[in-house]
Amino acid sequence: IGNTLACLSPPAYRTDEGQPWVLPVVKKVEKLIVADNRLNHEYLPILGLPEFRSSASKIALGEDSPAIQENRVGAVQCLGGTGALKMGAEFLRRWYNGNDNMKTPVYVSAPTWENHNSVFANAGFEDVRPYKYWDAEKRGLDLAGFLGDLETAPKHSIFVLHACAHNPTGTDPTHMEWTQVAEVMKRRKLFVFFDSAYQGFASGCLDKDAWAVRYFVTQGFEMFCAQSFSKNFGLYNERVGNLTIVARDADNVRRVLSQMEKIVRVTWSNPPSQGARLVAITLNTAELFAEWKDNVKTMADRVLLMRASLQAKLQALGTPGTWDHITQQIGMFSFTGLNPKQVEYMIKERSIYLMASGRINMCGLTTKNIDYVAKSIHETVVN
Ligand code: PMP
């Protein structure tokens, strides 16, 4: 768009210069891969690079996860987080809880990343429904609504939960709220399917961002966790994802993986190697792992800084309303609370581009455009 003064809906992380960022650790590991004469372009195993799958599951579940120690964790290397959701959905439609799985309700948050609906519908689920999540008025979690939907969902329904940095609202349950969610899900025998697309992006700390996933494991759930390395490694076009499977015992993992092999075979047959190799080398080499965590923190910190600056500027301008939700929300996205008319003003009058829902990607803000954006928000709210 020729005269864009600020694009607040870039599809990915951007630096303060508005540019894509190749993580320094990724550049380093790419050189190691090129220099390694032992590597070739043979097919990978159907389920993917073993050292990638195990290390990816480890960062989701934790180094000392009891489930890993008990050999009841398996993984499938997938094409991005989307691929991991797809593999999980295809498996569940074929094998979860009886023969009539097309009818099993799949619940996704209202609102959610819109592809959730289509991925599950395309896998053959006929009943993909929303569960209450966002309270527009209080600009926060609708916990009572969420728990209510868990209580009334048919037993064995599948619930897609955002592990952290909920897209698009930037609002996650607190630890206390997660424990309430887990309690109902366990009692009502609901299936937990985590989508972890932003680990590290919410707080800057991998372990903190995996709290919910790990808590559910301690509560004895069998579950799937779709992991994406698109954002936290900046490897968007390499399609690196992992489906972590936590099962009751080692025998169940083996059975699930043997069916997964069949599904992969008819879907992409073999996964691509470059991105998975990059991630595996990084996660399995202490110095590179430390450097990666530092790189992730750089991205998370920039987002936090933009949140704090935007909120401070709106407060300084005396913009009507409260803007605490800007700093309370986490991850890349924010629901600003701007209504469609205000969004239209921003686009038409100020050449600032954002979603009609009022969602912005915080990475679209830079030290150069933030004053202009804050003033424009002020104007549209006052007018
Ligand atoms: N889940 C959520 C919540 C997302 O926001 C995204 C990407 N926007 C994905 C999954 C998919 O990630 P990937 O690009 O790795 O397929």
UniProtKB/TrEMBL annotation:
<dbReference type="GO" id="GO:0047801">
    <property type="term" value="F:L-cysteine transaminase activity"/>
</dbReference>
<dbReference type="InterPro" id="IPR015422">
    <property type="entry name" value="PyrdxlP-dep_Trfase_small"/>
</dbReference>
<feature type="domain" description="Aminotransferase class I/classII large">
    <location>
        <begin position="12"/>
        <end position="377"/>
    </location>
</feature>
<dbReference type="InterPro" id="IPR000796">
    <property type="entry name" value="Asp_trans"/>
</dbReference>
<dbReference type="InterPro" id="IPR004839">
    <property type="entry name" value="Aminotransferase_I/II_large"/>
</dbReference>
<keyword id="KW-0028">Amino-acid biosynthesis</keyword>
<dbReference type="InterPro" id="IPR015421">
    <property type="entry name" value="PyrdxlP-dep_Trfase_major"/>
</dbReference>
<keyword id="KW-0663">Pyridoxal phosphate</keyword>
<dbReference type="GO" id="GO:0006532">
    <property type="term" value="P:aspartate biosynthetic process"/>
</dbReference>
<dbReference type="GO" id="GO:0004069">
    <property type="term" value="F:L-aspartate:2-oxoglutarate aminotransferase activity"/>
</dbReference>
<dbReference type="InterPro" id="IPR015424">
    <property type="entry name" value="PyrdxlP-dep_Trfase"/>
</dbReference>
<dbReference type="GO" id="GO:0030170">
    <property type="term" value="F:pyridoxal phosphate binding"/>
</dbReference>
<dbReference type="Pfam" id="PF00155">
    <property type="entry name" value="Aminotran_1_2"/>
</dbReference>
<dbReference type="InterPro" id="IPR004838">
    <property type="entry name" value="NHTrfase_class1_PyrdxlP-BS"/>
</dbReference>
<comment type="subunit">
    <text>Homodimer.</text>
</comment>
<protein>
    <recommendedName>
        <fullName>Aspartate aminotransferase</fullName>
        <ecNumber>2.6.1.1</ecNumber>
    </recommendedName>
</protein>
<dbReference type="GO" id="GO:0005829">
    <property type="term" value="C:cytosol"/>
</dbReference>
<keyword id="KW-0963">Cytoplasm</keyword>
<keyword id="KW-0032">Aminotransferase</keyword>
<comment type="similarity">
    <text>Belongs to the class-I pyridoxal-phosphate-dependent aminotransferase family.</text>
</comment>
<keyword id="KW-0808">Transferase</keyword>
